[in-house]
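For practice. Supply one:
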Amino acid sequence: MNRLKSIVQLSSSLLFILSVLLLIPLLVAWIYKEPILVYKSFIYVSAFSFTLAFIFRRLTYAYKVHIDLTTAMILCTVSWVLVSAIGALPFMIGLDKSFIDAMFEAVSGFTTTGITVFEQLDDMSHALIFWRSFIQWLGGLGILTFFLFVTTKSEGDSWQLFSAEGHKINAARPVPNVYRTIKYFWAIYSVYTLLEILMLWGLGLSFFDALSHSMTTLSTGGYSNHDASIAYYQLNGYKNYKLIEYTVILFMFLGGINFLVHYRMIKEDHLFIFKDIEAKVFMKIIVGFSGLTLIGIIASRGLPLGQLEESIRKTLFQIVSVTTTTGFGTEDIGSVFFPAITKQLFIILMIIGGCVGSTSGGIKILRVIILEKLLRREVHKLSLPNNAVIPTTINHVIIGYEELQRITAIVFGWILLIGIGAGITALFSDLGPFEAFSGMASAVGNIGPFYFSVSKMVSLSWVIKLTYIIGMLAGRLELLPIYIIISKKAWK
């Protein structure tokens, strides 16, 4: 009961904040003179969130909150589900969508997955488009991280909330105080977002397009204002479309890097990105997979000199987009532009994802590095005495046994969840095995693209959509909080 009271009281604070955030799109609605229904969709939901927060607070106002790691993980799952459910209501009211579709879109937004079940985005209300982008921006560094940033300056147990939102290997912070750590992260995140807005605006995008796409680039979310995604600007004759694409590539790349690396590059060592083992592997993956894709293109259909720049740009864009789990597109990943080998590489990238401590999804590159080191260690031990001890190290730091166990459990759970979801997709649809696997891998990896059309996604059974909702939440929260919430022991 004490744990439940702590969760209810903390949820009330989160809902108070959400009720304020829901009023921000009203400014967009006013600027673009949108119908009264759009205003109602945010005002009513804001009032509902505030009322629910007030009730929660009254029920627990005299209780002193205590947070341990288990409580933090349960709160993490509860808050993400609750905020997503309320954040879905404007889509239900303003677009007359079913709850399952609205919830799907909201969860995809907050988890920065980017899978959409909405079509005709070019004709959608500006306020609702802004809300889609805004929830991805909020979800980039995490709902609870934002909650801590605006509500507390204390150290205490609040670090548990920051840790629970996404399991962090050797969780470190640039400064001892949790509030200052979060403040630095949000400052870097906001400055990068502002910089991209100014660059895209200067390249010819409308301010609204620049704002919306910048929020979904740094968050590696991938929601676009247009059905054609970033390809819209080439298709509609924007003269700077190449520079627009290169700008988006740059900021997707920045979003995929650990924010501790960004901090150290800014405050201590400008070249630290070339010294951090995960960042180096991240860059090698991008260069290596881009090279393999270009080789595949040349081998399959040749590459005239006049098409070299276009092929490099499209390849680099899509590799960075998939690796960082952003999901923007200038070319459909299932199109004939990409050879068969690249389509297989995309699936691998969906599962691996970006760096730990970034806004990217996936298993994370650092975990893959550790697993590869474990494999090499076991092979090496075959030639050594039985009592030989070979520690696993990252950046000259020994990874403890408990951490190695946790990584193994997370990766196994990740693969198991994708397999179950792919099976459910195949069972309740006419999709082939490769398409079904790509859909669930995209959901759990929080990436967005898959090997079937958006129209097909819209038409899928509610059972599949619910499965993907669970997969998106599990992927964003890195499984453990989802498993804990269904554990009876965790509630005792």
